[in-house]
UniProtKB/TrEMBL annotation:
Keywords associated with the record: Oxidoreductase
NCBIfam families on file: PRK09414.1
EC number of this enzyme: 1.4.1.4
Molecular function per GO: glutamate dehydrogenase (NADP+) activity
Organism of this sequence: Acorus calamus
Superkingdom classification of source: Eukaryota
InterPro entries referenced in this protein's UniProt entry, alphabetically: Aminoacid_DH-like_N_sf (IPR046346), Glu/Leu/Phe/Val/Trp_DH (IPR006095), Glu/Leu/Phe/Val/Trp_DH_C (IPR006096), Glu/Leu/Phe/Val/Trp_DH_dimer (IPR006097), Glu_Leu_Phe_Val_DH (IPR050724), NAD(P)-bd_dom_sf (IPR036291), NAD_bind_Glu_DH (IPR033922), Znf_C17orf113 (IPR057456)
Family according to the record: Belongs to the Glu/Leu/Phe/Val dehydrogenases family.
Entry protein name: glutamate dehydrogenase (NADP(+))
Keyword Zinc included in the entry's annotation: no
Class of this enzyme: oxidoreductase
GO cellular component: cytosol
Domain Glutamate/phenylalanine/leucine/valine/L-tryptophan dehydrogenase C-terminal as annotated: residue spans: 392-638
Residues of the signal peptide: none
Length: 640
């Protein structure tokens, strides 16, 4: 090929051609309250190899009359005449308008792996994972990495892309340049009321790094806007409520089986005791931090306030990972953890419970050490399913069964029944497995479960025999992929989520923020009409917006998982002897509690202008009802 009489060797890499054809324009949410940024990066702005390489436009025989003009040949050359550079600029401007418009319409909202920050006085686009900036950190927006990745969330797409691997390589090569460490951005949802906006802004400025906690606060404040407008005295009460009463952070040293010392960090946030002694779970997970502990404590405070019992809220745990540890290592860690925490526990102060990574085994070790340190007290400080030290053998089923009862209650309001409906479940822990078990007894068709490596799909649905196989796999701590050895028609999808499968009801029971915007779109398109939250805050704010626009009814965890709170309180009440309850009595009592919570949420939603048939009614009604209970107690007790 000849260009101006000169021969050019086409040795440009695919990365360079992709970057040339698709200019990197990002529409991203910035850090300031209710502010957005359109940041356009021109050629060579922040990538030195491109800064010194001029571009020209050359003519080429068209392959099709319908081929877009901007996709005619563009080549990289090392030296070009100045008149050709002028021609290049005109051609580039014409191409940019069309591509940028299409990019914004189709992809602007999916770039969750990128964010904006200031570096040396210049706005840059950073990779949320690598925390590096540069043009090579963007993924091709038109999906040339394969249709399988297109079904994954934007962050997962980025993690699995060649561009991310290149970003990691560049990061390692640039460690000696002392590049600044930048923070992950926080999605700030605009609020109608200036008062509500100022409350969120105050939390944002005080704790700018607590991403999960701020997200939870924003959702609640959004629900409380009409309450604050109607009664201004609640503003100061809400400001006090959003600051935890006590935050405990401590070191947890322990020894492994080889005699090597290790250290982890422990957390306990006793968020509010306005209604009674704190109650909340302990979570052992590598991603555990103070922000997560505050978020869990805040959510538990509202959940307990929504229940008919007088309980405060707390949350905590450690960044310790029980996976791959021996029994003795877990026991030694739990004992070291309790050596510090026991000072802040007691029947009238704090009642720890199970959460992710903490099951009957861990709770047994924790309680044993607490009993030893507290002087032999045996009764009523911890809650869990072990009857020899806590009371109830039905405690473990309460939350999972309660989610299914809540779904059945919602369907009854629509004159429908659960039988025959396809249900997508995420997670495979205690809650998820009991959801699947109860769905089977109600005649529903559960089709998915998931673990940290992917999700399992059985199009025919699980039955009791298949469920027994699943339960054995989890007891033996094996991967769900082993299910395929028994049922070859099933499929296991690595590094993917179950939300693009056809379903009528979704039960997210894994962890917070597991449903992102792309997952919400998949749920709406797959026919899902009800989402029952099993885990705390399983949806991102962007996902919630999509679900509401898609008319998907959301049952919040505060209301739907009230069964675990209620039974936990009953098992500590000596007037009730749950060991002598039949399964029928237990389920009847549980359904009664779920119904009370539902009616209370709907009533408060109607009182503040949210109609019963609105997808937001249960979320807003639950938040309002819980807050009003707390506000009354805090008002009666004074400014403490």
């Amino acid at each position: 090929m000849l260009i101006s009489g000169r021969s050019i060797t086409m040795n440009s890499t695919m990365d360079e051609m992709n970057l040339l054809h698709h200019p990197p324009t990002h529409h991203l949410v910035a850090r300031d309250i209710s502010e957005e940024i359109d940041l356009e990066i021109g050629p060579g702005d922040d990538d030195p190899p491109f800064a010194t390489t001029p571009l020209i436009a050359v003519s080429q025989e068209p392959t099709s009359a319908e081929e877009p003009e901007e996709q005619k040949a563009l080549l990289l050359v090392s030296h070009t005449p100045s008149e050709n550079q002028d021609l290049m600029k005109l051609q580039q401007v014409k191409r940019k308008k069309k591509v940028v418009k299409k990019w914004r319409e189709e992809w602007a909202e999916t770039y969750k792996w990128a964010y904006v920050d200031i570096n040396e006085g210049t706005s840059r686009i950073f990779c949320s994972v690598c925390r590096e900036y540069g043009r090579k950190h963007r993924r091709n927006p038109y999906g040339n990495e394969g249709s399988r990745n297109m079904q994954m969330s934007a962050l997962e797409e980025h993690n699995n892309s060649l561009l991310h691997k290149e970003a990691l390589r560049l990061q390692m090569a640039s460690k000696d340049k002392n590049l600044p460490i930048v923070e992950r951005p926080i999605y700030v949802k605009p609020l109608m009321s200036k008062t509500a906006g100022s409350i969120v802004e105050a939390v944002f400025r005080r704790d700018p790094h607590d991403v999960e906690f701020i997200q939870s606060v924003q959702e609640v404040v959004h629900s409380l806007e009409p309450v604050l407008v109607k009664n201004s005295q609640y503003v100061h009460i809400l400001e006090r409520l959003l600051e935890p009463e006590r935050m405990i952070v401590f070191r947890v040293p322990w020894m492994d089986d080889k005699g090597e010392p290790h250290v982890n960090r422990g957390f306990r946030v006793q968020f509010s005791q306005a209604l009674g002694p704190c109650r909340g779970g302990l979570r052992f997970h590598p991603a555990m931090n103070l922000s997560t502990a505050k978020f869990l404590g805040f959510e538990q405070t509202l959940k307990n306030a929504l229940s008919p019992y007088k309980l405060g809220g707390a949350g905590g745990g450690s960044d310790f990972d029980p996976k791959g540890k021996s029994e003795n290592e877990i026991m030694r860690f739990c004992q070291s953890f309790m050596d510090e925490l026991y000072r802040y526990l007691g029947p009238d102060q704090d009642l720890p419970a199970e959460d992710m990574g903490v099951g009957p085994r861990e709770m047994g070790y924790l309680f044993g050490q607490y009993r030893r340190l507290a002087g032999g007290h045996f009764q009523g400080n911890f809650t869990g399913p072990k009857i020899f030290w806590s009371g109830s053998s039905l405690r473990t089923e309460a939350t999972g069964y309660g989610l299914v009862f809540f779904a059945r209650l919602l369907l009854a309001e629509m004159n429908k029944e659960l039988k025959g409906l396809r249900c997508a479940v995420s997670g495979s822990g205690k809650i998820a497995m009991h959801v699947v078990e109860k769905l089977l007894s109600c005649g529903a068709i559960p089709i998915t479960v998931s673990d940290t490596k992917g999700f399992l799909l059985d199009e025919d649905g699980f039955d009791y025999v298949k469920f027994s196989v699943l339960r054995d796999i989890k007891v033996q701590q094996r991967c769900l992929r082993d299910y395929l050895k028994s049922y070859t028609r099933a499929r296991y999808f690595e590094n993917m989520k179950p939300w693009n499968e056809r379903c009528d009801i979704a039960f997210p029971c894994a962890t917070q923020n597991e449903i992102e915007q792309s997952d919400a779109l998949n749920l709406v398109n797959s026919g899902c009409r009800i989402l029952i939250e099993g885990s705390n805050m399983p949806c991102t704010p962007q996902a919630i917006d999509i679900l509401r626009k898609g008319k998907v009814l959301i049952a919040p965890a505060k209301s739907a998982s009230a069964g675990g709170v209620a039974v936990g309180e009953l098992e500590l009440n000596h007037e009730y002897n749950l060991m002598h309850w039949s399964a029928e009595d237990f389920e009847s009592k549980l359904q009664e509690m779920i119904k009370q919570t539902y009616e209370k949420s709907i009533k408060e939603a109607n009182n503040y202008g949210f109609p019963k048939d609105s997808p937001e009614a249960l979320v807003h009604g639950g938040n309002i009802s819980a807050f009003l209970n707390l506000a009354q107690a805090m008002s009666d007790q004074g400014c403490v």
